[in-house]
Design goal:
This protein is an alpha/beta fold and 257 residues long. It is built from nine helices and nine strands. The termini are far apart.
């Protein structure tokens, strides 16, 4: 039995009167990609912030590398890389300077010059970070999450702002990283990304865990909830997700124009 890198049991988190996370349990093994999906406000980011040690849950157990990520954050972070959904860097620092700074945080940093090339940022090494495009900043954030040669990477909205070609390149890079034994937690609204990369899925709605298991298991779960007359075995993961999540009526222009 392979020991889990992440083990979460009965996680609960409340913001004032709002239960952001309710009785969530899951695990992640070495070399596995877990995708965390669900509508906005479903508790995805709150759950992951607890795993990262950034928030203290009201109850439940979280172990990352067998340790509490809040009590042993420095130790856990030696083997964990984190790419946050929104990150702020010093406005005047240049890309190369920021990479050298992050490399100083680790005993055995990755070759950031090679990573710059892989992330197609080599020509931006002397540019100020504040002058990068949104997609370039995203790639830089991913690069920095890899600086410590992590055994676990947490990626919040991995490919937001990237063009289709770069998204494909990023997917290939992370498949290669996964194959080397590195575990990943991927929070994403892109279901094609989840279908391509994920080994298992954690599906949340309004803070509650609806499903945790394989992609095939998710299809079976969806089939049990979708009316038979709406079901088709050829549905993509994105189509299943849209059928499962609450319907939105969209914008009405009646009385506006």
């Amino acid at each position: 039995m392979v020991e889990a890198i992440i083990q979460v049991e009965s996680l609960n988190l409340t913001y004032r009167s709002i239960q952001a996370v309710q009785d969530v349990s899951f695990s992640v093994k070495p070399g596995e990609i877990l995708a965390v999906i669900g509508p906005n406000g479903s508790g995805k980011t709150s759950t992951i912030e607890c795993v990262e040690g950034l928030r203290k849950p009201d109850s439940g157990t979280i172990r990352v590398f067998g340790k509490d990520p809040r009590m042993h954050r420095n130790e856990v972070y030696r083997s964990m890389g984190v790419q946050l959904q929104e990150t702020e860097y010093p406005s005047k620092i240049r890309v190369g300077e920021l990479c050298r700074l992050f490399a100083c945080f680790y005993d055995r940093p990755a070759d950031w010059n090679a990573l710059l090339s892989q992330m197609d940022l080599e020509e931006k090494r002397n540019r100020r970070v504040s002058k990068l495009s949104g997609g370039e900043k995203q790639r830089l954030s991913v690069l920095l999450s890899l600086m410590g040669r992590p055994k676990l990477i947490v990626l919040d909205e991995l490919t937001t702002g990237l063009d289709p070609e770069m998204r494909q390149q990023m997917w290939l890079s992370f498949e290669n990283i996964r194959n080397s034994g590195v575990a990943m937690v991927l929070v994403s609204h892109y279901l094609d990304e989840v279908e391509t990369l994920a080994d298992r899925i954690l599906y949340l709605e309004k803070g509650k865990q609806q499903f945790f298991g394989t992609k095939q298991g998710f299809r079976e779960y969806a089939k049990s909830r979708i009316p038979e007359n709406e079901w088709n075995d050829s549905f993509s993961l994105e189509k299943l997700y849209l059928l499962l999540t609450p319907k939105h009526k969209g914008i009405s222009m009646e009385g506006v124009l």
